[in-house]
Amino acid sequence: MTEEDINTIPEAPVEAPKKKRTYRKKKVEEPAEPAPAEIPAEEKPAETAEEPSEEEQTPHKKVPEQFLKDLNEFAA
Prior knowledge:
By secondary structure, the chain is an all-alpha fold. It has three helices and no strands. The longest helix is centred in the last third of the chain and has 11 residues, at 65-75.
């Protein structure tokens, strides 16, 4: 090997840049009937001044008390 061979860097083959993939957007189907702006008075639920019960306020399921007791005993 000569000095010229050592100092020259062999050129790597140039690859064309890869094209980014383009995806088609899904067509959103329009509802056949437009939703009514206001619900007729007959279909409206009766409005009450009562507060919703505890079960209605909590979106999660209520955990059984026995399970909580067992969990506390295990943690202690």
